[in-house]
Amino acid sequence: MSLLPLEEAFANVEKGISVLSAEQVSVADCLGRVLAENVAARLTQPPAPVSSMDGYAVRAQDVLSQPVTLTRVGESQAGGPYDGTLADGECVRIFTGAPLPAGADAVIIQEDTDVFGDQITMKEVAFEGKFVRKAGLDFSEGDILLHKGRVLSARDVGLLCAMNVPWVKVFRRPRVAILATGDELVMPGEAVRESQIISSNSLMVAALVQAMGGIAVNLGIAGDTEESLRETLSGLDCADLLVTSGGVSVGEYDLVRKVLGEEGLDIDFWRIAMKPGKPFMFGHIGNKPAMGLPGNPVSSYVTAFLFLRPALRKMQGGAFEQDKPVQVILGAAVPENGVRQEYMRAVFSQDPDGNLVATPYNKQDSSMLANLAHCEGFIIRPVNAPALSAGEKTQAIYLKDAMVSV
Fold first, then answer.
1. What is the total count of domains within the chain?
2. Is this structure's pTM higher than 0.90?
3. Is residue 223 located within the same domain as residue 256?
4. Exposure on the CB side of residue 300, measured as CA atoms within 13 A
5. Is residue 403 included in any domain, yes or no?
6. Running DSSP on this structure, what letter comes out for residue 311?
């Protein structure tokens, strides 16, 4: 079977992923969620002209020169406005955020006054609007301030509250069923026999799912028998997407494709022109999309980074898109590439001129998790790319594990 070019694999996965339905959640629980509709302000902020400083509300025409003495006739606080109307020669003590009384159009800050009982001497002139926040300075009722597709941040939560919005409609969080396969796998902390290895892929992928706003449903480890695999798959009903780890390459005990096929899996493609990650599978089991990640840890992560992250983004109403490459200078030479596009683990630095330098690890084995954990990005080596020397320019992408809600 020939290898599917990477561009075609991306396009096929994008076509095979659908946006999930929307649900309504409290503004207190919306952090990191993706808006399913535009949100408009339900009030004007501030609703009336307010003071931006502590001082005295005045009529600007009364303070065209200084010094001038006015009579204090009341006080305006944020929770207790002055109800009267200012007349000639009057002022009102006012605090930050308090509404201006009728007739007032400026504020003299308290540092620019002398107080003698109710007689307030103004030592600065005023002009209309001085230290006044106009009504609607921030926003007005009906203004659309947050748009469909936005990932809600902590700042957005504050804005929603100020907009007097208690509930928002967001896309449902994808429930991703994660299945690891192999008799050789044991969970972290369990006794490890000579022929066994620790299962890292499923928890690593689960963490990536959570970082992208999804809900990871760990189905556990299926043994290398059809019965064990079918039993483990019984938990698939509650999920929107199935992700398997291992069992999709060519081998005597690789049963995932066989068993899932008997369960109704329709394979779109299997094996792509990518390194690491050639044995990557995509299809549908019933109406659920299914991804089969390779068993090698680095291959599993790289394919999840390139395919699963955009899929989760699209399921939550976002765009199915890859991280945009940046131009870098190679910190070490790289050999010519073959027929698979390669993603080389690398660390980044800056040269004396401020250029971004990407230095690949000497060893790029797909089993080396320590290099993966410490690398800062991938150098992209296109199909049949020529050898490059240190100092030459190429393309790279950053790893981004940060939560979607930042």
1. 4
2. no
3. yes
4. 27
5. no
6. H
